[in-house]
Amino acid sequence: MPLNPIDPSILPAQFSTLHDLFLHYVIAERRLAENTVQAYSADIQSFLLFLHARVQTDLNGIDRETVHAFLEQARKRHISHRSNARRISALKTFFAFLATGGHVTRNPFSGIDLPRSGHTLPKALTVDEVTLLLTPPAVSSPLILRNFAMLCLLYSTGLRVSELVGLPIAACNLTSCFVRVIGKGDKERLVPFGVRAKEDLETYLKKSRAHILKGKRSNAMFVTSRGKAMTRLRFWQILGDMAVAAGIQKKISPHMLRHSFATHLLVHGADLRSVQMMLGHSDIATTQIYTQIDQDRLKGIHKKFHPRG
Q1: Residue range 229-246: average pLDDT?
Q2: Residues 86, 160, 209, 264: which is the catalytic one?
Q3: Rounded CA gap, 181 and 160, in Å?
């Protein structure tokens, strides 16, 4: 994985070295996912650039005033509470690593509380909107069949978009209707998919995939004409185009389909533990946020129809 190291012409060599040491640690020992590593790198670089602008090269000289000045700068730049919370978490981990290795004497972020922003409920599509989105297109082509198969599998499994576009063809069992997914932290899980998704995948594999590859070979399930796996950005664009074609007015994202998968399962009676396993959440508290959506739906029904609502 490319580490996107700090440019040594911009920052002191000490900063660049420690940044790279930490990334090697989270990749080799903690085995974090690529997206998480990139987020850590960006958050740490933002703080190191802040220190460099203040001409502060002694990491042991970082005090609460320095940290609060960094957070105040973020506030003035309208960086969200959630992003700041992620930055603080990343920097706590970074300086804990440095302290363990003897590079610093203490962790200046250990006593910094995460910004409180409350729980932002995931945005999900309605069942009617999903029905519109999953209605087969009138005109077919190899690319349309691929895009539709991706969309149906995404809603049927709740995969992360990175898991969807990176899915190897060998990881999809069309006989048992399971996909084998390597998620965050290299954790493996098996996720079932429905008969409709199976049919769309079979159609794509029989009528489309070879036409797209044009003789090229690829281990990826969903391929491009270059013989490569599709990128997250490209699928995001495709999904937006499909939503517009389906007459859906709101802006949607691949993650919204993941939220819809979880929300609709819970609304129709699925238990929280099963949904947690399918989503690949390490902490069930992450999954519990979806129960709030159903609670709000029930409150709305009660208010609308109860005679003393």
Answers
A1: 92
A2: 160
A3: 10
User: All domains of the chain, ordered by start, with CATH?
Assistant: 13-100 (1.10.150), 127-305 (1.10.443.10)
What gap in Å lies between CA 161 and CA 235, rounded to an integer? 8
Q: Is 187 a catalytic residue?
A: no
pLDDT of residue 160: 92
Reported as a single tens digit per residue, the pLDDT across 200-236 is 999 999 999 999 999 999 999 999 999 999 998 999 9
Which residues have C-beta within 8 Å of that of residue 225, sequence separation ≥ 6?
A: 212, 213, 214
Examine the pLDDT at 77 and tell me if it is beyond 80.
yes
- Residue 281 annotated as catalytic: yes
Whether 211 sits among the annotated catalytic residues: the reply is no
Q: How far apart are CA 84 and CA 90, in angstroms?
A: 10
pLDDT band at 299 (very low <50, low <70, confident <90, very high): low
For the stretch 232-240, contacts whose Cβ atoms lie closer than 8 Å and that sit 24 or more positions apart, written own/partner, are 232/161, 232/162, 232/165, 235/150, 235/161, 235/164, 235/165, 236/161, 238/147, 238/150, 239/151
Catalytic annotation present for 258: yes
Q: What is the pLDDT, as a whole number, of residue 13?
A: 81
3-state secondary structure of 127: helix
Active site residue 255: yes
Q: How far is CA 249 from CA 51, 100, 139, 232, 242, in A?
A: 44, 51, 21, 22, 11
- Bridge partners of 191? 179
Position 6 pLDDT exceeds 60 = no
252 — alpha (psi -120 to 50), left (phi > 0) or beta? beta
Q: Of the listed 87, 198, 209, 258, which one is catalytic?
A: 258
Q: How many CB atoms lie within 10 A of CB 131?
A: 11
- Tokens coding 4: 């996107």
Please pick, among 52, 92, 103, 184, the residue that the annotation labels catalytic.
184
Q: Is 19 a catalytic residue?
A: no
